[in-house]
Amino acid sequence: MMIKVKRVYEPASGEDGYRILVDRLWPRGVSKERARLNLWLKEIAPSSHLRQWFSHDPDKWEKFKKDYLQELAKNHETVDKLTEILNSQKTVTLLYGTKNQQLNEAVIIKEFLEKNLS
């Protein structure tokens, strides 16, 4: 199993495998056809409160990451659903909308899964 992270605005590729959007909100300007999703798992995204507080401010990243990891640890049903998908697919790509490729929830989800599945 391989977990990849990619911006939803980048073109879909055959190498993406199973494509999952992990944002709570649909990305602006992306049609469902262009997104080529297998699943929109908005329940795995940060809570609205946490997302709005963070507001993509790099200075808040460490606190955001800590709080979001706590949310993931309590989100058993959705994490279990994602784990089932990971176990049934060779490659899963977690898609996100934000411009920042290092500071986004998909990076945290990947880290969380790799730590907890190994």
Question: Mind explaining what this structure looks like?
Answer:
By secondary structure, this protein is α/β, with parallel strands linked by helices. It has one domain (2-117). Helix content is 43%, strand content 15%. The chain has a four-stranded parallel β-sheet with strand order 1-4-2-3, with helices on one face. Helix 1 (32-35) links the parallel strand 2 (18-21) and strand 3. Helix 2 packs antiparallel against helix 3 (61-74) and helix 3 (61-74) crosses helix 5. The relative contact order is 0.27.
List keywords for this structure.
118 residues; alpha/beta; four-stranded parallel beta sheet; 43% helix; 15% strand
Helix residue percentage: 40-55%
Rounded mean pLDDT score: 95
User: Low-confidence parts, pLDDT < 50 over ≥5 residues?
Assistant: none
Silhouette? globular
N- and C-termini, Cα separation = 11 Å
> Could you describe the largest sheet, including whether it forms a barrel?
4 strands, parallel
Strand order of the largest sheet: 1-4-2-3
How many β-strands, per DSSP?
Answer: 4
Beta-strand content estimate? 15-25%
Helix and strand composition category: alpha/beta
Radius of gyration: 13 Å
Number of discrete helical segments: 5
Please give the domain count.
1
Question: In sequence order, what are the helices and strands, one letter per element?
Answer: EEHEHHHEH
